[in-house]
Write a structure and sequence with these properties.
The protein is an alpha/beta fold. It is built from eleven helices and eleven strands.
Length: about 270
């Protein structure tokens, strides 16, 4: 079933790309041809969010997002990829100000962002869970967040979800993930909604006394963003991503960077169903 789903996706993307390239040529859309002729694409990510993007021991960009970006643009004929470090909160305005060509940072599609930038097809997914101080015995699932203070990262899909689904909780936005975890440990917060990866890193690498409780609250699909109306570039990227899903490249990169047992394509399908 999964293989059939992605095969049909690949065929649909190929047909769509052929049609759009014809339309792009007729309309003068040079979003793809301009980068191909230039021979280099400037890609933004944080370079501070392992396993997604970070600097390796040689101070070079690495991580899942970095590897995906390199492969996408290799497949569409742009061999040189230059990575630009920026903060998450700056990405949308950075695209609009032409500071870089695209952002490959596992960003979630939201209605507000979609008004001003375009999104590629998704190439990643994260699950968001409830994290509590390990001493907490009151919070076990979503229902037990009623009346509790809940921390979220500002501008993310988990903040949107929390504000829409936790009307009886005090939802507090934080600009940096470290601050919300500090407040959780000190008792100023009762819980945090954060990705499994970030929470696990804080628990294991930073040795914080925290645990996750309950089932995942939401799956967040991540995609690249690019300037609005960059139709030819978007569809070329979509086809490359579709091909990478069906030929196993996405799963291979996920196993390399995210975790040997992480089912990226399977979880992406779960997110689509939800």
């Amino acid at each position: 079933m999964l293989k059939h789903f992605f095969l049909m996706l690949r065929i649909a993307l190929a047909l769509c790309l052929a049609l759009v390239l014809q339309q792009a040529h007729a309309s003068g859309d040079d979003s793809l041809s301009r980068l191909q002729q230039r021979g280099v694409v400037y890609v933004a990510n944080t370079q501070a969010s392992p396993p997604w993007s970070y600097l390796d021991e040689k101070n070079q960009p690495d991580g899942y997002d970095v590897a995906v970006a390199r492969e996408i643009f290799r497949r569409i004929g742009i061999a040189k990829v230059e990575f630009v470090a920026d903060k998450f909160k700056n990405f949308v305005e950075g695209i609009r100000a032409q500071k870089y060509d695209v952002v490959v940072n596992s960003m979630a599609r939201t209605p507000e962002r979609e008004k001003v930038v375009d999104f590629s097809a998704p190439y990643t997914v994260q699950d968001f869970r409830i994290w509590v101080n390990e001493k907490n015995r009151e919070i076990h699932d979503k229902s037990s967040l009623r009346g509790k203070s809940v921390g979220v990262s500002t501008g993310t899909s988990n903040e949107l979800w929390a504000r829409a689904n936790l009307p009886d909780s005090e939802v507090r936005g934080y600009e940096g993930g470290g601050f919300e975890f500090n407040d959780l440990i000190s008792g100023r917060l009762d819980a945090i909604i954060e990705s499994y990866f970030n929470g696990y890193k804080m628990k294991t690498v930073n040795k914080l006394p925290i645990n996750t409780v309950g089932e995942p609250l939401l799956y967040s699909l991540g995609a690249a963003i690019l300037p609005k109306n960059s139709t030819a570039l978007k569809n070329a990227m979509d086809k490359a991503i579709g091909d990478m899903i069906t030929d196993g490249t996405i799963q291979k990169l996920a196993h390399q960077y995210v975790g040997s047992d992480y089912d990226m394509t399977g979880n992406m399908q779960k997110a689509v169903k939800n």
